[in-house]
Specification:
The chain is of the alpha+beta class. The chain has one domain. The protein has 7 helices and 7 strands. Strands 2-6-5-4 form a 4-stranded mixed sheet. Strands 1-3-7 form a 3-stranded antiparallel sheet. α4 crosses α6. InterPro entries: DUF3990 (IPR025051). It holds the Pfam family DUF3990.
Length: 186
């Protein structure tokens, strides 16, 4: 599964993309994510573009003249998998995967890291996790129902999250691609 990440993509906005070119700061990542705070990439350009467009819409009114961007990265996957101390790889979205995501997000709400892996790799959960987490915490649905609802729909997209400086050392090259947007006026 890791070989597909030799060429990876990270969706963001231009301001952050150029900052990433200089230095990837894991601490800037959000805690409340599938695999906890880290730097996330995907092997899917289309998924990275979705992430970039979402971040662009989120920042449209707060940062003037911003554009969606994709950071393309090349990773030394062989060295990453051989030399890091701790890694976790989920080949498919199963019970262990969904339970891990639940715990990462549960602890992430408190800005606490659930695990100590250098990197985690696995499928991207369905995007409706926040309302599901709330329902579990209010005992409106069971953990089993949560697991069933976060299963990916359609094509399974994967993600790789880098959580330590040791893992980041295997990023070989980065470049930024700006996604042009068009404003439609009436």
């Amino acid at each position: 599964m890791l070989n597909c990440f030799k060429k990876s993509f990270h969706g963001t906005i231009d301001v952050y993309a150029y900052s990433i070119l200089e230095n990837i700061d894991i601490k800037k990542g959000r805690h409340f994510t599938d695999f906890g705070q880290g730097f996330y990439v995907t092997s899917s350009y289309d998924q990275a573009k979705e992430w970039a467009m979402k971040k662009y819409r989120d920042h449209l009114n707060s940062i003037s003249e911003t554009k969606p961007a994709i950071v393309q990265l090349w990773l030394d996957i062989e060295a990453l998998s051989r030399y890091v101390k701790s890694a976790l790889i989920f080949e498919r979205p199963d019970d262990k995967w969904s339970e891990f995501i639940y715990n990462c997000r549960k602890y992430g709400r408190k800005n606490v890291m659930y695990h100590s892996h250098d990197f985690v790799c696995g499928p991207l959960a369905d995007g409706k996790i926040v309302p599901l987490m709330n329902k579990v915490e209010r005992n409106e649905i069971s953990l089993l129902e949560f697991k069933r609802h976060i299963l990916p729909r359609g094509n399974i997209v994967n993600q790789l999250s880098l959580h330590t400086e040791e893992a980041l050392a295997y990023v070989l090259h980065k470049e930024v691609h700006i996604i042009e947007t068009f404003k439609i006026s009436s």
